[in-house]
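EI: anyone free to look at a 383-residue chain?
SC: sure, send it
EI:
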Amino acid sequence: MAIRQVAAFAHLSDADVDALARDLDAIRADVEASLGVRDATYIRRTIRAQRLLDVAARIVIHRSRGRAGWMLGTVALAVAKSIENMEIGHNVGHGQWDWMNDPEIHSNTWEWDMAGLSSQWRYSHNYTHHMFNNVIGVDDDLGFGVLRVSPDQEWKPDYLISPLRNLLLALIFEWGIALHGLHAARDRALEVGGSKGGHELAAKVTRQVGKDYVALPALSGRRWRRTLAANATANILRNLWAYVVIFCGHFPDGAEKFDATVLDDETRGEWYLRQMLGSANFNAGRTMAFMSGNLCYQIEHHLFPDLPSNRLAQIARRVRALCEEYDLPYTTGPLPRQYWQTFRTIHKYALPDRFLKSSRSRECTEGREPQRFTTLSAVSTRV
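SC: here you go
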């Protein structure tokens, strides 16, 4: 399936696709040329603020006497963990801040505060997922190997328990990411040799479990149960939030899935188009954007995964203008709606094909803004 056989792109000529690539390259060049002190200050302040919030939350958990104080501290700890995971760990791991040449804030040195090993995640996520976004059989993040999210994925009987898997994955998302990274490391070892990653991951898990569930509770003395419960609850809350944000960026209506043949002789412009159609945003103000690691701008993040997250809102205005200029879809909507569509898709495709009533073409267009579509017979006006 060539990218321009997708209805939303069928009106584009080769010249259009090349022009779009140049326009997107220009956005990248403009942002890269303007990176400087303001951006470096942003990430350093974010790291300091996150660490202060983490410490303050733990103090409240330890010193508070009532349930309300414990709940306040636990929620604050969950917020701190979410910021560390998404706005810091995820984005540093993408190399968004490597241009600073700061050895402490670099993709090769940052280890995030969750079970998965950063180095394994960088391969499975930065390469396998971002290069091959939503390509069936190539992108391992498409359903994370346990969920069916497209009718083009062959149905298997074990998909019947997808609703249960979906709930379990949401609750233990950090562990799903850890295992996902391990499987990617093993696949890579089979191809190019090297370590399969089992020992490295075991060491990271030992450190993480030891910190959250042994060392920190032990430091609380007689109040160790409060600390243990707070750490476990905060991790679950962080897992649920990360799961919602990630799934809403890839599986709601309008986020296209592709056959592997789309990769044949794919040009840079076609790669850009695939990232745009294979991703989805959700509407967010500044606070929610920050808490999501700015992944409410998933389309822009997939176009420019190594550009700093604090620039994505600025980039989004230009990308949306290009979508209007080229008559391309720009999939976004309220977070509850985006998640409902994702939830519906997971439950819908858990069933065998004979039970499905809606066609693939309808699934691909539900939820998009009608005025942003073009039909197969549309004619490009660009030259």
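EI: The first helix runs from residue 14 to 34.
SC: 👍
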